[in-house]
Amino acid sequence: MPLNSLNADVDMSEITHVYPILWREDHILLIDQTRLPREYGLVEIRRSEDLAEAIRTMIVRGAPAIGVAASYGMYMGAKELGEVDRATFLSKLEDVAEMLRGTRPTAVNLFWAIERMMGAVQDSREIQADKLVAVLLKEAQAIHLSDLETCYRIGEQGLGVLPESPSKLRIMTHCNTGSLATAGYGTALGVVRSAHRRGRLERVYAGETRPRLQGAKLTAWECVQEDIPVTLITDSMAAHCMNQGRIDVVIVGADRIAANGDTANKIGTYGLALVAKAHNIPFYVAAPISTVDFALADGSQIPIEERDPAEIAQIEGEPICPAGAEFYNPAFDVTPAELITGVITEEGCVTPEELSTLKDSAHASVR
Ligand code: MRU
After folding, report:
1. Does the annotation count 95 as an active-site position?
2. Intra-chain end-to-end CA distance of the chain, in Å
3. Does ligand 1 come within 6 angstroms of the Cβ of 140?
């Protein structure tokens, strides 16, 4: 699909699935995910600093979407450098990369995309700054399009591992791993989408995902847009639903997967994996191979983002607890590999022990 068909001028009543990042000539438009579902608004981004701020404030979020957005951030930062020699260009581009790396620490796709963008200019023989800028734009668009294609493939691969019975499945998921979290279509929610399209979905149970409520605000919104049957539950209801026999399989996304399969994902994922194990329910992680960080031996080395305590101390700006309480607000947790039935990637589903077989594909996609 050409990028200019990821079009912002859409009639909301005809929307099928959404694209959170839209390329427009020389800038990007982001769906402002902080305003959904109340309001569908687009934010125009032209400067690398504004792009960094959009990632930090979660106007754009979700591991693959952050990676795609950061790629355009690198292009914008390069464009801002003006006419400089190649050495200056490379050194100043590293400053842009450093600014973008500082936005969110856990999702490895951010670092992966920046590395790929740096690699594109380093490998290029171009000397003139404007030519190097063009190289970066081409690379950002390649990352953007390939994420979309990767998500479709994850959806298809996921179909192959879904339990055969019952014929229509009740799938539990967490956070938002859909179109909004990627270039489009989604990872875990991409598998849900594919199951729905093939008549294999009874319904998806979406955990609300405190404190930012990505499940309630974003996943439920995406599902309703496409008539995917969705039941929203609070996070504390998950164990009860599994115990009641309402869930056939759990599928979540990932922000970073260590080489041994330990998986960082939205806070609450670890608890879901433990409860799924206790009820003998398969627990899958769906993610692109770019989310696997082969440099980290296990999950203890994954940096876990801590966010503003106000996210848990307030709801809609209103305090919900007495002054004097203290807060701890980790945005992610790490699910140990032994709780994970399989990792669904664009190349197929592997057990955590088999992840290393994907290493060559990972290198190939970095360049
Ligand atoms: O803090 P967020 O909203 O960026 O966290 C998103 C998640 O944890 C997703 O599950 C993960 O990025 C996978 S998205 C395909």
Report:
1. no
2. 22
3. no
Does pLDDT of 14 surpass 80? no
Query: CB of 285 closer than 6 A to ligand 1?
Result: no
Q: State whether the Cα torsion 99-104-108-113 is positive or negative.
A: negative
Residue 176 Cα, ligand 1 centroid: separation in angstroms?
Answer: 6
Share of the chain above pLDDT 90, in %: 92
**Nearest CA owner, ligand 1 atom 8:** 266
Nearest CA to 148 among 178, 114, 186?
Answer: 186
* Rounded distance from Cα 259 to ligand 1 centre (Å): 19
pLDDT at 56 over 50: yes
Residue 1, pLDDT score: 39
- Contact 54/68 with Cβ under 8 angstroms? no
Mean local confidence (pLDDT), 297-306: 98
Say yes or no: CB of residue 63 within 6 Å of ligand 1: yes
CA-closest candidate to residue 81, choices 140, 129, 25, 115: 129
pTM: 0.94
Beta strand 27-31 with 21-24: parallel, antiparallel or unpaired? antiparallel
Q: At what angle do helices 86-101 and 108-123 cross, to 10 degrees?
A: 180
Query: How far is the centre of ligand 1, averaged over its atoms, from the C-alpha of 306 (Å)?
Result: 14
Owner of token pair 């875990």: 188
Centre of ligand 1 to C-alpha 59, Å, is 13
Eight-state DSSP code of residue 253: -
Domains of the chain (ranges, CATH numbers):
12-153 (1.20.120.420), 164-364 (3.40.50.10470)
- Supply the pLDDT for residue 2: 37
Ligand 1 pocket check for 150: Cβ under 6 Å: no
- Both tokens of 85, joined, read 């020699």
Answer yes or no: is the C-beta of 48 below 6 A from any ligand 1 atom. Answer: no
Answer yes or no: are the C-beta atoms of 274 and 337 closer than 8 Å: no
